[in-house]
Amino acid sequence: MIHSLSGRLLILTTIFVMLAEVLIFVPSIARFREEYMLTRLERAQIASLALLADDMLDPELEEELLRNAEVFNVVLRRDEARQLMLASPMPRTVSQTYDLRDATAMVLIRDAMLRLFRPGNEVVRVIGAPVREAGLLIEVTMETAPMRVAMLDYGIRILMLSAVISVITAVLLFFAMRALLLKPIKRVAGHMQRYAAAPEDARRIFEPSSSVTELREAEEALKKLQTDLTQALKQKERLAQLGSAVSKISHDLRNILTSAQLFTDRIEMSEDPTVKRMAPKLVGSITRAVHLCESTLAFGKAEEPGPTLTLMALDELVEEVIDGERLADPESEISFAADIPAQLTVRADPEQMYRVLANLMRNARQAITATGKPGEVHLRAEDGAGAWCITVSDTGPGLPPKAREHLFTAFQGGARKGGSGLGLVIASELVRGHGGTLALRSTGPEGTVFDITLPKGDGTL
User: Where are the coiled-coil regions (predicted)?
Assistant: First the structure.
């Protein structure tokens, strides 16, 4: 039980309540001692009234009055005159004097604790103010042993009562905390165990129900975590299924495109000028598609090769990408421009870099086309000190908030209706394979700008 949260809560509650009772015990004992001595002063004053009524008292009566007051003698000061009212022999001399008229709380507590832990029997003088202003002061002498016995008896009763109160309070607090805290925690833990057994099952997602603010926040956070995890697992399963389907499709598509390559070889023999001009581009497109199918199949086997880095002329590759985009939508009012230094060469894989630029420029073209207005797609390249920098910008409407939030997340970062959101994911992964970065510089009503950075040398930027 001591290792459980409920057991430790019960033990700690009992200890803390006992500590609180001890803090109450100390001033209570001091107050009891003060009341004890004030009672003796009051009794002594009442005994002295008998002497005021009759100057001559019988010695036996005087002794009885002192015995009832539990004092040895009584001194009363009236009208600036100090008068010994009652007296009896004292067993020993006075060891200490206590003046209750101006004693502070700390002084009373200190004296009470000293008396409680001092077992000897002493004679002390106690000075106080008479009740009902029956004089200037009253002074008595008394023994400390009876007072200490009374203090110990009172203290034991206080401690026993404190122990009972502590146990009752601890039990009540334990059951209250068990109902308000421990049961909800156990319920959450039970839900977590059931959810862990089948995280793909959305029916096992936890539903918050606690009325305690902190527990409610924890339950809502747990629900969000489980919801996100379930969606991620479903997305992972869908991606696995999609990967299997794509591998099968790519296998058959590769065979079809291989046959198409054989036909393009004959088209190249045509004497038609238009066919001669278009045939190489058609051959290049089909060859690129065949390579893509082969890469897809290799990826399905977890054997996708890295980029084959070579020094390539960037302007020729950009011109090919632009020609492909113009042919894709010949009737649009979109202009394509390239600002590339002459003879600029970059270290990259030509096929993969073509896919990167084609994805970016296709996204830009489709964004402008969706507005129904003319626009421009501009590609610019710079030869930096440690890296090549390529910028693709457009005058489109900018990316919507959801697309910016999931920009490089598959199937979630699509900017247009019906888009898969894979273009930027593919481009980003290909650039990372070159040791570079693809980043969104800006987007808004004035257009969107993407930056590609390709490192030189050993791949460090």
Answer: 215-242
